[in-house]
């Protein structure tokens, strides 16, 4: 098996896909060996990325697919518990998350691309096993 060049990062999306304070882009990864989702969004001109998991109770944050910001587009809001996070830092600013914040995911933006850099605890999903049949299509 050939592992991608992780030092070059893994493609997440084209830069144009992230509109200022707009929808996020999600992808799957392994976090401490468990399959999780991460998301990236553009806030104050910077691309930021976090695990899609509330610090209060581990549930996904988006209230609609890829919608992470509150109605004023100022904060990341947990759709289930109402915990409020700073998009710039991931720090909890209100709610039951206390001092816990969102888990950051390292991304960069260059040459019109957003790229993710895996770490010790955040790894790419393994490629599918070619010996297993693909999942059946939904009716």
TrEMBL record:
Domain of life: Bacteria
Gene3D superfamilies, sorted: Rieske [2Fe-2S] iron-sulphur domain
Coiled-coil annotated spans: none
Record's keyword annotation contains Iron: yes
Pfam families linked to this entry: Rieske (PF00355)
Compositionally biased residues, Pro residues: 124-139
Molecular-function GO terms, alphabetical: 2 iron, 2 sulfur cluster binding; metal ion binding
Key words of the record: 2Fe-2S, Iron, Iron-sulfur, Metal-binding
Annotated stretches, region: Disordered: 117-139
Boundaries of every Rieske domain copy: 11-116
InterPro entries registered for this protein in UniProt: Rieske_2Fe-2S (IPR017941), Rieske_2Fe-2S_sf (IPR036922)
Matches recorded under PANTHER family: PTHR40261, RIESKE DOMAIN-CONTAINING PROTEIN
Protein name in the entry: Rieske (2Fe-2S) protein
């Amino acid at each position: 098996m050939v592992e991608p060049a992780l030092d070059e990062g893994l493609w997440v999306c084209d830069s144009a896909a992230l509109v200022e304070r707009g929808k996020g882009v999600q992808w799957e990864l392994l976090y401490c060996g468990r399959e999780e989702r991460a998301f990236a969004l553009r806030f104050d001109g910077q691309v930021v990325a976090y695990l899609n998991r509330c610090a209060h109770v581990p549930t996904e944050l988006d209230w609609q697919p890829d919608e992470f910001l509150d109605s004023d587009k100022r904060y990341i809001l947990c759709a289930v518990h109402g915990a409020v996070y700073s998009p710039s830092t991931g720090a909890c600013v209100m709610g039951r998350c206390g001092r816990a914040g969102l888990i950051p995911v390292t991304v960069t933006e260059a040459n019109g691309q957003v790229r993710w850099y895996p770490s010790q605890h955040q790894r790419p999903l393994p490629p599918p096993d070619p010996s297993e049949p693909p999942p059946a299509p939904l009716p």
